[in-house]
Design brief:
134 residues, alpha+beta, two-stranded antiparallel sheet, 2 helices
Length: 134
């Protein structure tokens, strides 16, 4: 693996973690959204990571988010008959977003982001040191 390939892998991981952070922020921002444009409460969104296959001509590799899926866990039901989105029995369906889970995921994703920046900077330093040897 060349240094350019190492840089490319780190950049792909940084980009993937950035998208994951944005999804976490979206989940937290919609924690109380009981009605979306699609009808019903907001569903938690989760990134699906996959290995970026090395292309024959570029041999890059890395990681990418192949899709964003909606969490299928059931909604929480809260009795609030005065709410405009309450059903016939007076229950309101709340999003399936758990703040504790999102915060743990945010810390984890943030650490992965930082680790990939550290790897990128170390690779960049190796490239600079190699150029100074000549």
């Amino acid at each position: 693996m060349g240094l350019n390939q190492a840089l490319s892998i780190s950049v792909s991981a940084i980009d993937a973690q950035r998208v994951a952070q944005e999804l976490i922020a979206s989940n937290i921002a919609n924690i109380n959204t009981t009605r979306t444009v699609y009808g019903g409460p907001y569903r938690r969104r989760i990134p699906v990571f996959a290995e970026q296959l090395a292309r024959a001509e570029q041999k890059l590799g890395g990681v990418e988010i192949t899709e964003v899926v909606e969490d299928t866990t059931p909604f929480q039901k809260v009795y609030n008959p005065g709410h405009p989105d309450a059903d016939e029995q007076g229950y309101v369906s709340l999003p399936n977003v758990n703040l504790s889970t999102e915060m743990v995921n945010q810390v984890y994703t943030s650490r992965l982001y930082e680790a990939n920046i550290t790897a990128f900077n170390a690779t960049k330093k190796m490239m600079q040191d190699t150029l100074q040897l000549q």
